[in-house]
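User: For my dataset I need records formatted as: sequence, then structure tokens, nothing else. Please produce one.
Assistant:
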Amino acid sequence: MYTDSHCHLTFPALVGQIDHIQRAMLQAQVTRALCICTTLEEFPQVHHLATHHNNLWATVGVHPDNEDVAVREPTLSELLRLGALPRVVGIGETGLDYYRLAGRSVADMAWQRDRFRVHIRAARSLRKPLVIHTRSSSADTLAILREEGEDGGSTSAGGVFHCFTESTEVARTAIELGFYISFSGILTFKTAQELRNVAAWVPEDRLLIETDSPYLAPVPHRGKTNSPAYVPHVAAQLASVRGTTPEHMAEITSANFSRLFSGILI
């Protein structure tokens, strides 16, 4: 019934708990989840989950926050190879994150922009959606997508802006470029009224929901380890701001998830 469009089941807080997670998902009527890759080193674990559980799928990519020398830099050829594997349905999580500049300027983040372009080119070549992370960097994120040919046309990869926390104007531009908007547990936080206003505006056919597990557990579980089983709370909040029912939001967001990954999910 519900679909969690973004979770990290291989992160330390959740690794090794797949049986418990699956039971909780079943009880909460969460029928599908997309397992997100953040490093190439992590990819074998992410892919293993997707190939051993018929309600899970995987992405491949390197998160923009990962600058550590121990993290292998993705090449186009490697993303193309791994992205073509069974049950890998998207490229990412990728994008830009200027939130922690640590005394550096935006000009110093050229390595992030270069990495982002590699992911976009892989997604366009494979015709698989991008999973976009953008934080304190939305103008550059949108500009680079345009520069790389993402205009919502027939040759665009498209994708989703995950864990959306930006303005209505950023959402509008992302949608014009062919992207979906995914809301996380942040939508339930008391301080997130501006985000709820954005969620009320986004067209129904571009909405997705996620947990971003193990982070950002929604109210009433805020502060706890998040899990795909909690995504119905995001749907309930989304339903409240849009004047509809959680069941309707479950139906719409699950249908949108299937449409975004059309011809890939089976």
